[in-house]
Amino acid sequence: MNRHENTGGIGRRRLLIGLGAGLAATALPGVATAEPTLLAGAWSNPAYGTITSGFRTPSRPTHSGTDVANSQGTAIWAANGGTVVGVRTNSYPGDTRPGLLPGRTGNAVLIEHHNGYRTYYGHLYSASVVRGQVVTAGQTIAKMGTTGNSTGPHLHFEVLANGSPINPYTFLANRGITLGRTRPAGGGGGWPSVENGERSEVARVVQHLLTAHGHSAVADGYFGSASVAAAKAFQRAEGLVADGVIGPVSWPHLIIDVKQGSRGSSAKAAQVALNRHGAGLVVDGDFGSVSVRAARNFQSAKGLVVDGYVGPLTWRTLV
């Protein structure tokens, strides 16, 4: 079993996105009020997908958020740094019981940010955070689902300013973010998709990692039929949907932690990924002192914990 960086809570591997003064919002029934948080910084797209319903449209004048649709299990990311002040995980599709906030249903996460903002993430399949946990912009917090009063997998995303919902699409657009499309802040949680026909260094990284898992793929950077077949074999072995696309669901299973002394295809994958950011390493599969130094330089430049250890948080930022 691979060691993994702690990407949640107040672990030593947490990425701090900035500093700012937090303001506690008015308490809501069943929802904790956080202590003023020191985490603030750039806002982020919370999920990839297609907008299927907007904020308070003529057909849905009471709809307090924007819906982003994608497949079940699609990663959901924190839209800004803050503190988780509410989590619900006991819902199911078709559940009409009252949710985390009045008028909402389904599994959900509520995060308190600086300057009186809160964000709400609804209809989740599952949550990967707990109440009281400190999170950063772009950190994975949940998986998309269709729990509660929902007709299909999507994220119901809300931004609340001092307790009042505001248009989340416009709010993010004013900060240079297209809801559903922009890569998350810092690359955190922003796993790319690699599929048939792609030519890239990320495809080369995937090929090395597939080989490391025992599904041989020529590391030529072209993700053709042979690589797709290897990807499908890997996905079947991991109990995933075997579609041959390496996306947000497959990446966490594919990555292998790399540290000083690591050898083989996983080390080659890390070296290729570091070279994408100008490391200039020889891709020899020996993750020695030179590779560790390159990893530390990359982590320092990205504001990560500088330990030379390529775990999930570093991998997400690398690719």
From TrEMBL:
Residues 62-168 form the M23ase beta-sheet core domain. Gene3D superfamilies: Glucose Permease (Domain IIA), PGBD-like superfamily/PGBD. The keyword Signal applies. It comes from the Bacteria. One of its GO terms (molecular function) is metalloendopeptidase activity. It holds the Pfam family PG_binding_1. Residues 204-248, 264-318 form the Peptidoglycan binding-like domain. The keyword Signal applies. Residues 1-34 form the signal peptide. Keywords: Signal. Coiled coil: none annotated. CDD domains: M23_peptidase (cd12797). SUPFAM superfamilies: Duplicated hybrid motif, PGBD-like. PANTHER family: MUREIN HYDROLASE ACTIVATOR ENVC, PEPTIDASE-RELATED. This is Putative peptidoglycan binding protein. It comes from Stackebrandtia albiflava.
